[in-house]
Amino acid sequence: MTDISLVVLDMAGTTVADDGLVERAFQAAADGQGVEAGSPEHQRMLAHVRATMGESKISVFRHLFGAEENAQQANLDFEAAYHRLVDEGHCAALPGAAEAIAELRASGRKVVLTTGFSRATQDRILDALGWQSVADLTLCPAEAGRGRPYPDLALTALLRTGTDSVRELAVVGDTGYDMLTGVRSGASVVAGVLTGAHDRERLLADGATHVLGSIAELPALLLAG
Which parts pass through the membrane (predicted)? Predict the structure, then answer.
């Protein structure tokens, strides 16, 4: 696909192993709001967290906890817990991710890493992996206007990299919200990977043009013919 010049990649679940870190950090946020682990209310909230993987975390907490003060505190508790898990070593690149990014960039394509986390959490992950320079650009929702499932992250990546057309854009992620972002941005390639939150059926239902086993398969798709 020689017409693809910009590849927008999700982080957790796509290029970075999640291994339940989001759910573990959410437990800290729920605890801080007095939601008892294992209770029906907790299970309802956890189901929403799973369904909306990829969305800006503060948006998720606004939905779950209502008042802005509660949402902001939940977000702070979530970030503190997630940072602690990262600092303890529970953060790793998915197999083949760094190599795939390097191959795409070596071919002349630009790569942008996006996330539903805050900039502080995104930087914590990048630092833990030694990925400060792995991509041409990194973006979080606050730097784009709105997070997923809106097209803002992908379109901001396009504008910031000087890409000429949305037809030159590929959007790749592990969640239905990543797929919706790709579709709404007009990307030619909207690729789902099966290493994260959502299954093939969800990815296809939300608009995936391709479903890959992992990010390691992406260069073969984009560099073919």
Answer: none
